[in-house]
């Protein structure tokens, strides 16, 4: 069995890395931090924000509400305040299903044989 190198998992992400994940400007992440009290990144001695995976999941949920579903900021805040745990569980479930879908598509594409190659 060939050696498989273990992926190093980061604990903290910079605001630039988080912004690139969602393909938005860092200023939007800073703005959302001020508007949504669920986003609380740690700050280092210089004041640079350090986001955890939990912070990123919360931002992903806000992104889904605001950018994908078209909620206003106030509407998104109300959805989050209603039942925060249930809402985040559903968001993480949806994200996991998207990951599984991508994985299955990769498998399908890797075993798909072009009829011309037979």
UniProtKB/TrEMBL annotation:
Domain HTH merR-type: 12-82
Signal peptide boundaries: none
Alphabetized UniProt keyword annotations: DNA-binding
Domain of life: Bacteria
Protein name according to UniProt: MerR family transcriptional regulator
Organism of this sequence: Fontibacter flavus
Organism phylogeny: Bacteria, Pseudomonadati, Bacteroidota, Cytophagia, Cytophagales
